[in-house]
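## tool: complex_structure
## caller: assistant
## args:
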Amino acid sequence: MIYIAILGFGTVGSGVEEVLRKNAAEISAHAGQDIAVKYILDIRDFSATPYEKLCVHDFSVIENDPDVSIVVETIGGARAAYDFTKRSLLAGKHVVTSNKELVAAHGAELLEIAKERNINYLFEASVGGGIPIIRPLTQCLTANRVLEISGILNGTTNYILTNMLKNGETFDAALRQAQQLGYAEADPTADVDGIDTCRKIAILSDLAFGREIRPDDIDTTGIRSVTLADAKYAERAGCVIKLLGRAVVRNDGKLWVYVAPHLVARECILSNVDDVFNAIRVTGDAVGDVVFYGRGAGKFPTASAVVADVIDAVKHMKTRRYLGWNGVEPGKVAALGDMESVFYVRSDCTVQEAAEVYGAVVMLSEKDDTERAFLTAVMPTAKAYAAADALRSRGIAVHSIFRKL
Amino acid sequence: MIYIAILGFGTVGSGVEEVLRKNAAEISAHAGQDIAVKYILDIRDFSATPYEKLCVHDFSVIENDPDVSIVVETIGGARAAYDFTKRSLLAGKHVVTSNKELVAAHGAELLEIAKERNINYLFEASVGGGIPIIRPLTQCLTANRVLEISGILNGTTNYILTNMLKNGETFDAALRQAQQLGYAEADPTADVDGIDTCRKIAILSDLAFGREIRPDDIDTTGIRSVTLADAKYAERAGCVIKLLGRAVVRNDGKLWVYVAPHLVARECILSNVDDVFNAIRVTGDAVGDVVFYGRGAGKFPTASAVVADVIDAVKHMKTRRYLGWNGVEPGKVAALGDMESVFYVRSDCTVQEAAEVYGAVVMLSEKDDTERAFLTAVMPTAKAYAAADALRSRGIAVHSIFRKL
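## result:
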């Protein structure tokens, strides 16, 4: 019998308990042993619930109980979660988590502690919810030099963008709906401003390129500036708007890593990823493109990934998984200025002004539209933004400027 | 230094050698050791090529060389490949393969030998080419009860069907083109008649459900009966035609496992998988749908998966991976007769005759079409085919009858 403790009994934590209970027979068969929840740590009180006897409020009870060999951290954030994870690892307990914020910020340090103690710190659920991506990336694509990772990594923003495009909802209405359905938090900043996507592309880059990529080094733009007008013009261009986290290997080995809204052509498989679904496209030099698709969040999909890690920890009680990366390499993440792309621009400029500062463009707006929307030729990012500044310096509003994938 | 031998130096075998050479630095970093090819076994002669010194024609040289710890079997078929794999395992050598025919037919026996010797028999490349699917299924989805697997598992047939639908090519013209491009063999039977797909869904079912599913027990229909007319009517129904391998869990725990052409609605992500790409959709009770997409065949994609397995074998020289399944459970695979579906039927019948034998139908053909094509209501397979027999008994031709996904 393997005893585990669940830290944080919110959506994911309670999902983990439920999956362990519901699929106990299959899980025991896979793990080779029965798995039992010995403690649930939460601030809240669970008296008069089935969890009353498991509930503790003092982490040291778990820390000091040698029976507990695996700790599931589903608290979130990088404060209590960081403290408890570190203490769990130092106490020789394997830790499994869905906490992208913690892995992106302190993964290197926590993995180092796990390495020293010959135990596992596993975080399959931290990226893509239930979608298998960490193991495929670190075990199945190891023969490849990874050339690019591009992903729809946040379900909330994808739900909002899908609703804007398909149902003509405004950003605010779509956000409110996402909040009502429980997809978006009351404070939607981490989702809407791309911070969640930033943490996830950081983790994928750490693993794919073997160097710590700090979230702070990732140029991050969310979807607050996307309007219904942009959705309409994107459609005219045969595209949809998606928030992508991307890591692209340059010829000199440096990386462009960034988060931004993109116009994605309908021919691209990422354009078909709607609602709260996520998809991650990995390009390797041998395998070409592979795509992993599924529910990127939610109680049971995320619990599915957490419990798979728990099973893996049980099967590898005495051996460490080969997860980890080296420290920050100064200059590894390059500025986006010379990254080339087609850009989408929406502005109050005239057709002539657009051509003057951007050169040849493909107009998406019609003559009687009150503004201009167009696609540029392939150009460096710095040049695209300098042209926007040139418009602004003449008192012309630039409403949107996005890359095209 | 780890020495390997490559058996069969065709497309995949030579791709393995090339990937090992080209990405040697990355591969050594992942494996923790350098990997060198010591022997290449092939019937052909490689004098005056860079492989001259590695080439052997006698398997016993490899079998008896204790330096060789991993054997890569890329011969294909279940004759020499079976003999050499068995002898390699009995000699205590790990074996990595892309050979779906061998794994589907003799996987259980070969895995049993590997288990006894505490070594690995790995076959990630046998399903989905370069797409990671075996590990995600056996390691990342272990918290789930798998409810269904549906996949486009054969690149050749998908290339043919895509060309029929998108370019209006006939089956014969599309097949010839696939042969010219090297996607289809001179004898296309295994692809076109669904045999390759059958082997792959057998392997996925073995792993997902823990019981050996014999290819002989899988109802298998290929794409020879698919015509341009069907492609046209499918389009009118908002669908495309795809050859799917499927395993569906019934309420009583038995399985429906079969291979057949399907009408797939455009809303389904599998409908967007074109050309030689493959995609596998796995439905778990916790995770919901997850999809794995990529190049299902080809030199480098397949080599990518083989080499990843070689790296895994190097990392697990002393420990066995938890791959395997139990023997055949009589009655586990249920007959398709009571499996319910919407059916697509194309026939020389009249509208009245269609309604008489199939009940309410949705007509896809127009009044001036020379034949009738329609979708039935949801009905058991046996009833759908009995209705077709009723038409035939009255001398009316039934050209096509496919399921709708």
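## assistant note: Chain A has three domains: 2-129+299-315, 134-295, 337-404. Residues 97 and 123 of chain A are 5 Å apart (CA to CA). Handing back to user.
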